[in-house]
Design brief:
The complex is a heterodimer of chains A (257) and B (304). Chain A has 257 residues and is mostly helical.
């Protein structure tokens, strides 16, 4: 395919993905808005006032970056896993497979579709958080960089999940039993300084901790870990997941007989 | 000579160990109307799946318009349009979007895609339904939508896998008229079907595949010539007299003696039947084959 044709194919996949999640907005955009509003109201306002300060900020301000990041992670992941698995399930993925679209374009199209939803939800949650607290912005560049890289990484993770999934249960297992615990234990609601040494060391094995803290640093200027180290980890994950996802596509794993 | 499709020693063994293709060779000429026939599980869909990259081959060579799929599958895919047996579009997309989106996957610009979508949706009587979700269409409309989608990049070869399965007679006829026109305009057509009369009426060349092997590959005309025996059913205007016989023919007379089944062996003249009936002043009202001629050959070849 010529470069211009590749661009059209990529753009087509991306637009289709965006059209999909905006068409079903009550399932994709509304639930995180409601859930996060409840988090802000209950954890931030009601309980947060009793907790006091954390990292030099009010508890509400402290958890907002983590909750935004949690929404981005969950939504970018689930967008790709559910969209690609649905395409497999109703065989519409064959529309792409019979076409000359290169596999790396398919992977990038779906990934960017997941990123679009992650950022869209992230923006909605950010706007909602402003009704509850004031947010300073330490570094706009770092904030955007971290949120984009994180959305890319989890979109790629969702794609790999969808490739292996054989049923809708398989699509929900990873978010329920792996992603949610990692996110909750990834410093969204607390600083790991509060943990005993042993659990601090264990927490450092959790990749979500690095993303949440790097994002929090971009907004509040405080972090439990080295931000540059966090960026390196995310980039390594992206490269590995992209390579792995592309390999699976080239092999036709789960999509070709 | 460059063929539309050229397959040599194509083998496919699935992970389960099932050998779906045992080294088939096949050539389809440009502009041909070609039938690939075979019983269920014979290897038709596997062959088509390999051609359009839904199935990975185990070994062998496949070229589409001279392009080896192992060397440049992307180029080879551009020559092909595929209408699969099962509906495989996003049922929540509108009819128009299903077709235009497919064009995008081939790198066709949005404006050209919309132009072609209008052309093919109109030709296939789906233009009025363009804004409907595709899940709302009837079975026949869904089939036509898949044809429009397969044509959106104007392929040189159109592969139709059981396109008329479950489609009513009127729609089937109009669908074949459309496909015939495409063929007349130069598109190579490859079809699989269970309706053998369709293959007999439409196709010029034919391959019969059984248990992963090609058991016959010739022109429909040449194949029909090999038929040694045909059974004709004749409806008569009056009942035959008791004990009537037709020397040299095997005849089965119905209960009311007004319909007969006559087996005609190759070389025998049908005129003899008419002369014998004329001699007793019985007229033939209508005459037809008991079964499709191709069907008889098909069954014979499959049984081996």
């Amino acid at each position: 395919m010529k470069n211009s044709e590749i661009w059209v194919a990529f753009y087509t996949i991306l637009v289709r993905e965006i059209r999909r999640f905006t068409r079903i907005w009550p399932q994709t955009l509304l639930p995180p808005a409601i859930t996060m509003t409840l988090y802000f109201a209950i954890f931030g306002n009601l309980i947060g006032d009793r907790i006091g300060e954390m990292g030099g900020f009010s508890y509400m301000q402290y958890i907002v970056p983590g909750l935004i990041m949690m929404s981005v992670i969950t939504n970018s992941y689930s967008n790709v896993s559910s969209s690609f698995f649905s395409a497999k399930f109703q065989h519409s993925v064959q529309e792409l497979l019979v076409s000359p679209t290169p596999n790396w374009v398919i992977l990038m199209g779906y990934t960017l579709g997941g990123v679009a939803r992650g950022l869209c939800v992230g923006l909605i949650v950010t706007v909602l958080s402003l009704f509850f607290t004031h947010l300073a912005l330490e570094s706009l560049f770092l904030t955007i960089l971290v949120v984009c890289l994180t959305a890319i990484m989890f979109s790629l993770g969702g794609f790999v999940n969808a490739i292996y999934a054989r049923s809708f249960d398989d699509v929900s297992i990873v978010p329920t039993f792996i992603l949610t615990p990692l996110t909750y234990l990834g410093g969204v609601f607390y600083s790991i300084d509060l943990l005993p040494d042993f659990w601090q060391s264990v927490s450092l094995l959790n990749p979500v901790l690095y993303m949440v803290n790097a994002f929090r640093y971009g907004i509040l200027g405080v972090s439990d870990i080295n931000v540059y180290w966090a960026l390196v980890i995310v980039c390594v994950f992206i490269v590995v997941l992209f390579g792995f996802g592309l390999r699976l596509l080239n092999q036709g794993k789960g999509i070709r007989s | 000579m460059t063929y539309a499709i050229e397959i040599s020693d194509l083998k496919k063994r699935y992970d389960s160990g099932f050998e779906a293709l045992k080294g088939i060779d096949l050539k389809v000429e440009k502009g041909d109307f070609f039938a690939l026939l075979g019983p269920n599980g014979a290897g038709k869909s596997t062959t088509i799946g390999i051609l359009c990259s839904l199935v990975n081959k185990t070994s062998g060579k496949v070229s589409i318009f001279g392009t080896d799929i192992d060397k440049d599958f992307a180029k080879a895919k551009k020559y092909l349009g595929v209408v699969p047996q099962e509906f495989n579009f996003n049922v929540f997309e509108t009819v128009f979007n299903v077709v235009v989106t497919q064009a995008g996957f081939y790198g066709i610009s949005r404006s050209l895609a919309e132009e072609r979508a209008e052309k093919y949706l109109k030709q296939l009587d789906l233009w009025d339904k363009r804004n409907d979700q595709s899940r709302m269409l009837s079975g026949g409309m869904k089939r036509r939508l898949m044809i429009a989608r397969a044509l959106i990049h104007e392929p040189e070869v159109l592969i139709l896998d059981e396109p008329t399965a479950g489609v009513d007679i009127e729609l089937r006829r109009s669908m074949w008229e459309f496909i015939k026109k495409l063929n007349e305009q130069g598109t190579t057509i490859i079809l699989t079907t269970h309706y053998l009369e369709e293959a007999e009426q439409l196709c010029r060349n034919i391959a019969i595949i059984n248990a992963g092997q090609i058991v016959e590959n010739t022109s429909v005309k040449a194949l029909l010539k090999t038929l040694n025996q045909e059974t004709f059913i004749l409806d008569l205007d009056t009942s035959l007299p008791n004990g009537w016989a037709l020397p040299g023919f095997s005849v089965l007379v119905s209960k009311d003696a007004s319909t007969i089944e006559v087996e005609v062996i190759k070389g025998q003249s049908i005129n003899a039947i008419f002369q014998a009936l004329d001699a007793i002043s019985v007229n033939v009202v209508s005459m037809r084959n008991k079964s499709n001629r191709l069907e008889e050959l098909f069954v014979k070849l499959i049984k081996g």
